[in-house]
């Protein structure tokens, strides 16, 4: 049975005229109303009828790039790399596409909304960056939306994100977060550390779980007890690293190392240690993850796992534009490199 505009209006509890305004974008609509209409469109899988639908098999010149937080260098670097490939080298041939960066703010609802809008705009390609939210209903909804984008002719590429079971045709360039986490903790154990605090990211993110699992695998392989009191979760920001480090020191004053979920969190950890009068790495070693540009300029320079963010983003852009073949099976693992710097050393109070 064909879903009509009236069906969407009834589902969203608004007038058909309001639905039309939201979908056409030609009249201001309250944000809450807009969200409700787009959610109804997504729930009912509504496709615009009428003259505009004669182009349903075609795609536009639009390419969507979804990021969690464009202010975070992790996402900014990847988005910049994707866009550089979409516009073509030096702006020459192949520069006919327009890239639109969609900042979700980490919101599951906003992620779905942007995918709905990109489907309506018949985007030529969609690149989704960063870890996925580990919520079964949301994963199914995202997978279904990605699948429908592909069926409509959009090239879908996941960059730094696990494959989506519900969207088997989407290309996935997935980061080896688990392997990187293990190498980082192996490094600290090799230096003699046994009391290692771990500041993880948000519990609902795949990136968080995979990096933490790598840390736990390294502890288990070395026979080091995994004390649950020494693992704390929080946002991927500096404040989280600062507060969590103070709490770790309260729980375990004998702590000799801190592993942070990413480099920004690690900077917060370093600030907390300095404020407590502790030296890095003489008193406590600190390690991060990602190797963001500021990491090497920290004092001391930060030991971390380098993810090739720009290279991965550029590859995603080339695949999205059909300038590079898809990896075998549509999935490729992007490995990280351990960067040993001055923030880690042999513990003097082991």
TrEMBL record:
The keyword Transcription regulation applies. Residues 3-57 form the HTH lacI-type domain. SMART domains: HTH_LACI. Coiled coil: none annotated. It comes from the Bacteria. One of its GO terms (molecular function) is DNA-binding transcription factor activity. Keywords: DNA-binding, Transcription, Transcription regulation. Pfam families: LacI, Peripla_BP_3. This is LacI family transcriptional regulator.
């Amino acid at each position: 049975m064909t879903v009509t505009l009236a069906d969407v209006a009834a589902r969203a509890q608004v007038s058909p005229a309001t639905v039309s305004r939201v979908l056409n974008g030609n009249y201001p609509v309250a944000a809450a109303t807009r969200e409700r209409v787009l959610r109804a469109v997504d729930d009912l899988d509504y496709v615009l009828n009428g003259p505009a639908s004669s182009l349903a098999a075609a795609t536009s010149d639009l390419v969507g790039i979804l990021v969690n937080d464009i202010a975070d260098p992790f996402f900014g670097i990847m988005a910049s790399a994707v866009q550089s490939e979409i516009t073509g080298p030096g702006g020459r041939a192949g520069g006919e596409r327009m890239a639109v960066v969609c900042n979700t703010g980490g919101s599951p609802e906003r992620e779905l909304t942007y995918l709905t809008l990109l489907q309506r705009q018949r985007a030529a390609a969609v690149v989704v960056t960063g870890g996925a939210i580990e919520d079964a209903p949301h994963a199914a909804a995202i997978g279904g939306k990605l699948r429908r984008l592909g069926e409509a002719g959009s090239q879908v590429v996941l960059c730094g994100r696990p494959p989506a079971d519900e969207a088997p045709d989407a290309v996935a360039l997935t980061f080896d977060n688990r392997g990187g986490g293990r190498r980082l903790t192996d490094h600290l154990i090799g230096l003699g550390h046994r009391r290692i605090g771990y500041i993880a990211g948000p519990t609902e993110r795949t990136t968080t779980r995979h990096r933490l699992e790598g840390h736990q695998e390294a502890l288990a392989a070395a026979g080091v007890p995994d004390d649950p009191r020494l693992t704390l979760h929080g946002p991927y920001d500096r404040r989280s690293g600062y507060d969590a480090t103070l709490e770790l020191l309260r729980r375990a004053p004998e702590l000799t190392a801190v592993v942070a979920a990413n480099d920004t969190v690690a900077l917060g950890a370093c600030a907390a240690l300095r404020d407590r009068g502790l030296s890095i790495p003489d008193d406590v070693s600190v390690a991060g993850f990602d190797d963001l540009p500021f990491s090497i300029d920290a004092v001391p320079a930060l030991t971390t796992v380098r993810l090739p963010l720009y290279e991965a983003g550029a590859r995603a852009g080339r695949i999205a534009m059909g300038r590079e073949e898809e990896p075998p099976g549509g999935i490729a693992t992007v490995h990280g490199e351990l960067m040993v710097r001055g923030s880690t050393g042999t513990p003097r109070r082991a």
